[in-house]
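As agreed, record passed on underneath.
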Amino acid sequence: VQPPDPSSIRELRGHRLPVTCLVISPDDKFIFSASKDGSLIKCNDAFPAGEVDSGKKLCVVPGGKKGTEEQNMGHASHVLCMAISSDGKYLATGDRNKLIMIWDAATCKRLHIFTGHRDAVSGLSFQKGTHQLYSASHDRCVKVWNVAENAYMETLFGHQDIITGLDSLSRECCVTSGGRDGTVRLWKIPEESQLVFCGHQGSIDCIQLINEEHMVSGADDGSVALWGLTKKKPLALARHAHGMQEAQGLQQPYWISAVAPLRNSDLLATGSHSGSVKLWKCGEGFRKLEPLCDIPL
C-alpha cells in the first residue's frame, strides 16, 4: 500500500462550520456531509482531473435556529452523526438537540423526525440489508427503529458513560464504545443480551466493525485495539499509535479520533489530531497491528 499522491486529494467546501460526519452512497456516486452549522450537503463525487472544489453540490439543506425544526427542513444544532441504508434509500442524521432526522437520499426530502433520546445523538447505523436503524446517545442508551415503518422498537441499557460510537453490519446486533466507562459492548438484539469488552486505559471514542467477527476501536490514551467478538480482551493493542506530543511540559499521546476499516479486509485507517491519517495492516489472524504508512493532511 502506497500513500496517495497529494495532487489526487480533492477538497469539497460548502459548510460554514466544521464538518462533523459524512457517508458515501453504496453505489459510490454521492457524498453526504453534515456540519456543526446544522446543514446537510449532497455532492456528486465524480472529480474532473486536476480540479479542486469540483464535486458538484446536488442538494444543500441549510441549518436553522433552535425550535424551528418543524418549519425548516434542516437541523437547528450540531449534526454529530450520519448513516445511509445499504440500498441507498434512506439517510439518517443525528444532532446535539436529541433529534434523529430521516431523509430520502435521492431527493434530500425529510421524511420523519425520531424523538426519544434524552441527550445528544452520537451514533447511527443501519443493519445491512434492512431498514432497521440503531442509534446511540450521550444519554447512555441504544435505541432500535424501523425506518420504513416510521416506528420505534426498543431501548437497550448498559453503558455507564456517554456512548461515543456505534456500528453494525448484517447480523441483528451492533457494537458501541462507551467513552469513559472504559468498555466496548456487543448488543445481541433478539437475545436482549450484551457482551462487555475491556482493554483501553482512556476514554474509548470510536469503534467500527471490520467484518462479522472482528472490530477496531480507538481511545484518547492514543491506543488502537483489535477485537474478536468471542474474546473480551483485545487481540492486538497499538499504544501511542500516532506518537506523542508535548503539552504543558508533559508528554501526552495524540488521541485517536477516528477508525475506518476497509470492510472484510485486513486494511484499516486511523485518524488523530497529529495531522495525519495512518494506514495499518491486521496481521496474524487479527492478532497484530502493523503500521503501513502515514498520509499527511
